[in-house]
UniProtKB/TrEMBL annotation:
GO terms for molecular function: DNA binding. Residues 13-69 form the HTH cro/C1-type domain. This is Transcriptional regulator. The lineage of its organism: Bacteria, Bacillati, Actinomycetota, Actinomycetes, Kitasatosporales. CDD domains: BldD_C_like, HTH_XRE.
C-alpha cells in the first residue's frame, strides 16, 4: 500500500471515529480491548498497513460500509458534490397549469409533508426528479431541460442530472 493511500485511508478512519465522538482510547474501551488505541492510531496516521480483513472488522465495529473507509469512493473526497435541485416556486406559479400541474401538485405534497410553506423555493432529491420524470413520461435529463426552460430550475441542475446518469 502506498504511503499516500495509507494516509488517505487513515484520514477516513479518523473522520469516522471522530464523527462518532470517540477518542482512540474510547475505541479501545468500547471494543473491550479488541482494538488497541495505539494500533488504531497507527492506522490513522498511515504508519501501519491494515489488512482487508482488519479493515472489514473495523468498518463493522464503526457500523459503516467498508467502502466508506476507502479513499476516493465517497463524496467526501476531492470530487465536487452535485448541485442541489432547487425548484423556484414563484416561477412555477407562472407556468400554465396544463404544463406544470403535476409538478405543482408534487411540490405541494412535499411542502405539506415537510411543513415548509415559505413559498419561494423547494429543494428536491434526485429520487424526486426521477419520480417526476416518470410522471411526465420523460428521462430525467429531458425533464431537467424542460424545467430549466420554464425557469423553475437553475441551469446548474444539469450537472446534478449528468452526475446521476454517469
Amino acid at each position: 500500500m502506498s504511503s499516500e493511500y495509507a494516509k488517505q485511508l487513515g484520514a477516513k478512519l479518523r473522520a469516522i471515529r471522530t464523527q462518532q465522538g470517540l477518542s482512540l482510547h474510547g475505541v479501545e474501551e468500547k471494543s473491550q480491548g479488541r482494538w488497541k488505541a495505539v494500533v488504531v492510531g497507527s492506522y490513522e496516521r498511515g504508519d501501519r498497513a491494515v489488512t482487508v480483513q482488519r479493515l472489514a472488522e473495523l468498518a463493522d465495529f464503526y457500523g459503516v460500509p467498508v467502502q466508506e473507509l476507502l479513499p476516493g469512493t465517497t463524496p467526501g473526497g476531492a470530487a465536487e458534490p452535485p448541485p442541489k435541485l432547487v425548484l423556484d416556486l414563484e416561477r412555477l406559479a407562472h407556468v400554465p397549469a396544463d404544463k406544470a400541474g403535476p409538478l405543482q401538485r408534487y411540490a405541494a405534497t412535499i411542502q405539506s409533508q415537510r411543513g415548509d410553506y415559505n413559498g419561494k423555493v423547494l429543494s428536491i432529491r434526485q429520487d424526486d426528479l426521477r419520480t417526476l420524470a416518470v410522471i411526465y413520461d420523460q428521462s430525467p435529463s429531458v425533464l431537467t431541460e424542460q424545467l430549466i426552460s420554464w425557469g423553475v430550475l437553475d441551469a446548474d441542475a444539469r450537472r446534478a442530472v449528468s452526475h446521476e446518469e454517469v
